[in-house]
Batch of 4 targets.
Target 1
Amino acid sequence: MASPDDLKFQEFEEATDLLSSNPGASTFSISNTGASSGDVRLDLSDDEGNQQENSELLGGEKQTGGFWTFEYYQSFFNIDTVQVLDRIKGSVIPLPGRNFVRHHIRSSPDLYGPFWICVTLVFSVAIMGNLSTFLSKMGDPDYHYRPQFHRVSIAAVTVFLYAWLVPLGVWGFLTWRQSVERQISGYTFLETVCVYGYSLFIYIPTSILWTIPFNWMQWLLIVVAMVISGSVLVITFWPAVRDDTKLTAFATMAVIVSLHALLAIGFKMYFFQTATYTGSPHTAQNITPASNHTA
């Protein structure tokens, strides 16, 4: 018959060796509070924090910081290259009935693509504008090239004001009409900014082609760019205003397209002034017919 000492828990050498080799290993202890109560207490000191954190993640209770924190804005730039390229492709090839918000950005609207598109457009317009001016006046002996760095500032103010103030106005108007007409569906401010930012991408390759010193070619490129980018805006915002009155719907779309066209025309008139060189009076006086030099 076993003695009472044999029924007690004994220390095992394997456990002692394990703790000596890995002091940070998680352990738990079972203590018997009494024979009559039979309560068992488990000590999960190292695992309680992890289990609580995992339960919060599975339950979707992970809290985000306020708008004054860096984590709040970090989510707007959480996008990969494949998504950016897909959205750029959607802005360059607008298809009828394919809403840009619903098919491209509704899952995760971002500010990464619009920000870098605006920055690239600023430098593209300013640099190509200087190059266009140089090429158009390259044959003029009275012209002395001077880099016009102030054009970068003007382009930056114009592009970023347009990319933020116009979407703010459109979003505010749609929100107001949504409160007046309940059947009107609107977009969030972030979605509106995202649409306008990606719609400006077509002006980047167009500004490079504007260096071609032919005025008719430049205006043709403007028309093509306005049709492509304007189609993205029309296809996107028409479903949001078509349930409104006809006058309000068509007036809203006319204002959106007109402001977008005004931006492109302003680029052309200020940054890409193609001058037709006819020769200066001093040069004309120095040109003599070849027959006067013959005997």
Target 2
Amino acid sequence: MDLSEANITKQVSKDDAGEGSMARELIKINFCGSTPLLWRTEDLKAARELGFVGTLVGSLARQPRQNTRLGRPLELLLEEGRLMADMERAAVSGLDSKSEDPEVSPAVVEQYYAGLENSFQEQSALALEDRKMTLTRVLTEKQKAMSVQLCTARAGLAHCPQERQFLTADWPMPQDERCKCRFQVFKDLRRRGFYLTSAGKFGGDYLVYPGDPLRFHAHFIAVCVSMDESMPLCDVLAIARLGSNVKKTVLLCSSGESQDDEREEVVYTSLQWSGMA
């Protein structure tokens, strides 16, 4: 898919499910280094509707030091972003770092930063008032709450080309054999209707869910290996035993060319630990 910046602003994709296909706006993917991120609420919703889960990694403005509840942006797996692009439902957003935005003037940039400063002063006063109310509530044992409007709607990068350039990158998908294998496995499992998330803490590549992870537990741990790659027996036993301990089946997934045509096919081998005599 062509991810040129000229197609990002107004570019739409067509939904092929049905005869009367409707035009849809592309999901805008920003990059921080090599990490694909989704910032807009509508993009998070559209990605979820397509079956892409991702991971929320942003801190909440009112509780930045906690890590039990997180917010935007949504971090995607590289395979998730690439598959969305192949489906013509997403494109890389941002400006080319070598070009200048003709619509941005110094006055607009100055106004943008002035608005941020005014918002910071307002939020400082509100935070001080909030702390006073909290102290008063503790002393008087009264339950009161205070709603604070945060400067999040202006966090879109429309008037700050430096920040947009920081979040702009070419598609950083490596082309080595392992990354190709991971993508083919991810694409095939999504085609079969499974949901996938990262499985780094389980020693695999993907956790495979039969449905939305909010409703189901993962049934499989997918480990991507090349067709001609050899695995030490101790590694096979270790991953099989780990899968048994967490009540999941380990899938050894390998991609290769089909004998019938030139398309890639994925071969799956399941492992289950049955103990030692």
Target 3
Amino acid sequence: MDTADQLASVGTFQVLKLPLGFIRVLEWVFAIFAFATCGGYSGQLRVSVDCMEKARSNLSIGIDFAYPFRLHQVSFDAPVCEGIREERVFLIGDYSSSAEFFVTIAVFAFLYSLMATIVYIFFQNKYRENSRGPLIDFIVTVVFSFMWLVGSSAWGKALSDVKIATDPDEVQLLISACKVQTNKCGSVLEPRWSGLNTSVVFGFLNFVLWAGNIWFVFKETGWHKGASSLAGGGSEKQSGTFNNQGILDQSAGYNTQGNLSQPTEYSQVGGPTSYSNQM
């Protein structure tokens, strides 16, 4: 407890109330859901082969598949309905590249979000003492935003292909006994896709979070601060110009009024003088 209290006293947890820190925490949580729902998936489907000779039938053929979805390595035994022998049937397709790419992005995003949150809390002064830290943070945020978009799109396309490849109606076409009209094949159990559908949703939600956080990270960089200082200097210069012009106009007005009033005084003084001379 003493160590926790010391860390709490040293850390600046107020940053978690700001968009910069709060969004990082959301990125950390959403990345966990993204790679957990995809990387931890395992599904099963079942088909039945009802041969003309009932003794050779198999009404519950289980086919298991899981991440990383190398379906061409998934096999099952199906009856041939001719004799007592069986055939080894393999599914079609290899979607491991898209699935592994998606999970890899999620894992690295999870690690970076955790590290960035720790830096924001406990090393905020070092983070802001020079422009290198915010600049690296900005570049990494932009890269992860792009990678989330690419990875989520690729995994969404791969998931639709996985659904087609593991459709019981499509799997029946791979069984030679199902091509014989005297035999009957059917679907017993279809895979559940709620977990994988959720993974795609979390992928695009992560893209929205990372893309939205670009602005808040950019505000910490020297580029934004330099632009703000230039804009502030320009406004001060413009206001100074207006003040100088006002002073010049005001002094010019005073000079004009003085020049106009001076001949009047001279004319009043000179009037009686000229009259006395005439007398």
Target 4
Amino acid sequence: MKAFQTICRWPRRSEGFSVGPSPRVGFSTSSYSCGRKKNMSPYGEVNQEKYSDLIKSVLSFRSHAQTPETLFEEDSLLYGPVSKCKPPKQDEEARVPGNWFPLFDPERNVEPNATSDATIPLKIPLRSNNIPSVTRVLQKTMTSEQVFYLERWKQRMILKLGEDGFAEYTSNIFLQGRRFHEALESILSPQGNLKEREENLESGYIESVQHILKDVSGVRALESAVHHETLKYMGLLDCVAEYQGNLCVIDWKTSEKPKPSIRNTFDNPLQVVAYVGAINHDANYSFQVRCGLIVVAYKDGSPAHPHFMDTALCSQYWAKWLLRLEEYTKKNQNVQKTD
């Protein structure tokens, strides 16, 4: 026993060791104690038969490694399809339109001719012909990302309202927009009926734009057609008037969601600048427009968001519009060749 104690104390005097007092250790030759230390895992007490199916499913799942394909399938099942749209490359963003044409006409005055009657806004009827409308060009040249989000919104609305409910919803949206434009035309036109103006003031959309209308004056055109004689496109603009002293093409929009930034208006700036370019080169108009204004009105009467487009901003969007028009022309030519 003394020899054993001597062996246990020996490491304390060895170099490189610092061993403090340790409790006395007892040894037992009992096989029960040794076996108990080996089987201390709590999994041994689990009812294997009860959870056999769960164990099999876990083991079978672990036997197959996840791959990018299976991860995408799982995400698609949980969150819907993933947008395949790739971010635009720098060279694509810096593209210059091949069909370049100036936005402004250097030979035309900014102000109307002295002989023109500015008290009566122009209202040129839209005539059907073979050239595309601004709306059609923008619809046919939407990016894959825009198409994806539009289709996803449509499918969500159909799941929520059903096919018939969604058709009725879209019909009501168009009807509200048309009534809103008719009300604004009545308010801004000097020939408008006073009774109609008072009735229109009860509309939530009209209430929404009241603070904008206070800064609108000198109306030049209302619901009037424009035609770009060189680039061969047409459209029906909402209004041309002065806003805070700047002659603008004004586009009235309705929305169920707030759009505080011009980026929230998607392709609306392209639509406005397309009208600006067309009116500046349309022989039916004697004046020139250098600015644009997008007004987003809300049904609940909350203040509308105005998005003013100065000359520099209009010039930036004009280049983008020319690219979209160029893309539409190429697509249309390809369709004609296949036909």
